[in-house]
Here is the input.
Amino acid sequence: APAGTTVDDGVNIHRLKGSKRRNVSRVQYLLDYMSFVVAAGRRLNTEHARRRYDLVQVNTMPDFLFLATLWVKVRGARVSIFMKEPTPELGYTLSGSRRIEQAFRVIERLALKYADVAFTVTEELKATYASRGADPSKIHVILNCPDIRHLEGDAEPRVDESKFVVICHGTVELRYGHDVMLDAIKLVRDRVPNVQLRISGKGDHLAEVEQRIIDEDLAEHVVSLGWLEMDELLSELRGADAGIVCQLSSPYSNLVHTNKMFEYIMVGIPCISARLRAVEGSFSDEALIYFEPDSAESLADAIARLHDDPELGRTAVTSARAHYDAGYQWSDQRTVLI
Here is the structure.
């Protein structure tokens, strides 16, 4: 959207000039972020002078976004920080550099010390912050689940009775395991000839995924849908037989949940998930259909088991929804936030 100020449902949104480019050097990538911090800080100071803020919430990544609030905090505003990702672990997962990981840990500690109150998305991530010296009494957990209203459109399910459809939506990056999914489909298609994986989203790894579909003759069993508007995505989700969460195992992925996992639960389809530590800590074996991380063989077996045993899927849907209704809904998380 163009720069300027708009109002959406009573919220003033200030859009700033600038860009965040992906296919650039690390230095340029950092400069793009820092230019936003400077621009956001300037705008925040201007708005604070007009009508003083009681509270500024910073939603990371990156963790150094808290720097934009320095002047308004000096002038009396409180600052909360919502740490949505373990940035040091993600930095190491993406770069393989311990030096980058250590630099991000320094910034993480500064951000958590600076904030008056902090939030994060799993108990495992809170414990990690505490183990690195953060004050656990100021950190509160808000699960990474969206408001149910986000999925309450009128979109009709896109149903193809001739196919057993598994879906994965969201950013297409190497760490989200799309290659494992393709390998699993190659393994399971003999056991489940009508299986079809539908991939929705865009990202840096999408071109490679789409090329593999062509090169390995997978077009009958794998469809790349690209970016979908919300009503189109809702139709796809509601018509699928299961959703897949296939994050590769890493120090990062074992500390977080994904939005898509909660969205599958909310629309009432079984979730096939990699057995990662933070996920396993929140959902029982009945609630999710687990497979071993990074294993195409294990994922293929999970897909086949679900296809062959519809009761397995019904049990998963019922159990996962029970977890959700017992305290994982956004209304519960909203209470913690407020």
